[in-house]
Protein: Crp/Fnr family transcriptional regulator
Organism: Sphaerisporangium dianthi
Amino acid sequence: MTSTSAAEPGEFLSLLTKDEADDLCAAGRKRRWDRGATVMSEGDTSDWVLVLTSGRVKVSSYTAGGTEVVLAIRGPGALLGDMSSISGEPRSGTVTALEAIEGVVVRDFSGFLHDHGRVAVLLLEMVVSRLRDSDRKRVEYGAFDTTGRVATRLVELAERFGEPTNGGVRVALPLSQDELAGWTGASREAVSKALRSLRDRGLIETGRRRVIVYDLEGLRKRAR
């Protein structure tokens, strides 16, 4: 059994009924990975999916020059590896644990979808949502400067993973500046400069693998 209430809103598991979630988890087996572990590798041909039940991961890809591009951050309730499982094609990205994670590995995901038609429709809707998000990010890269893109990502992190603290919202996600650079399509130096600009405006405070947002609305305005 698993809890859909523990899933991050909008992630796959949160969309299922309790019976559907129980059936999905009963079709697999539990696994755990330590922080920094590679969960899935780009180009791999394995066909299992992972239902993330706790912890957070990054999904990334690498350029021909070896530069990491962060595609997404996923939290509890996320479904990972579904595209390869359905298409039979190699993995399109690498999934890395940002902290210790737990999940359920399901090998016959197509069989589960065959027996649960409503879930198959939900998956289709989720894939469409991902494509829309991808399109939105491509627009950001062309329309926003580096500081705007960094502000956008910090707003997203604060809204998804923020924890209230004195006078602000603390983002406890263990994301390095290099990873933030890979997520915004910028160099580490450009991201460092953008963070300094946002600090000088009093919008944020930064520390080792943490950010405190003091003015979320101001950060949203800078993102736009």
Remarks:
- Helices lie at 18-26, 82-87, 109-115, 117-143, 146-161, 177-184, 188-200, 216-223.
- The longest strand covers residues 68-74.
- The mean pLDDT is 90.
